Amino acid sequence: MEHKAVIFDMDGVIVHTNPFHVVAFERFFDRHQVTYSTEEFEEHMYGKHNGYIMRHFFKNQDLTEEEVDKLANEKEALFREIYAEYACPIPRFLEFLIVLKAAGFKTGIATSAPKENLTLIMRLLGFESQMESALSSENVIHHKPHPEVYLKTMKNLAVKPENTLVFEDSFSGIMAGKNAGAKVVGVLTTHSKEQLPPCDFYIHDYTEISLKKVLELLEK
What we know:
By secondary structure, this protein is an alpha/beta fold. It has helices at 18-31, 38-44, 50-57, 65-83, 93-102, 115-125, 148-157, 171-179, 211-219; strands at 5-8, 106-110, 133-135, 164-168, 183-187, 201-203. It has nine helices and six strands.
């Protein structure tokens, strides 16, 4: 029998970090005297790579890669400092992961976040050993909605796109999963259904999905 896999984005999918990213960005932008709005966060921050975010909010397309990296590292260090004492999985994620592993699924993480964020969250929540692949922004050249991070994860897991279910919460992430040929579950932690591309199924948390449903989605 061919292997089946479930691949998770991280922010908004495993952990509801977006409110803490907002706090970190607000402090960071205030420090640098950069203007912003809630609407801009929704359109230009959630699910986006730091390079895009910095160039948008600093209104400067001429920032060098080194300048972007320095700004991004400063902001992400601030996020980790804020989030470390609040780390908590989205309800029933850890239990759902145990069910998937018991059923023989391969599992992985494919996030646009930096490796240090991924490492911190896996350590705090204790599920690193249950992931056969864990890729972050440093592992790709092209960022979501490009499918690279999902295609690389599928390769790591030795699974085909048609045997893969992706969990995503952002427009760009859902498009990355779809562009990779996977079925996609939209996690409605950050956006409503109407704000996202069409998905194969939607959940608010992991109380709303079962192993039976995962198998049904992969057989569609």
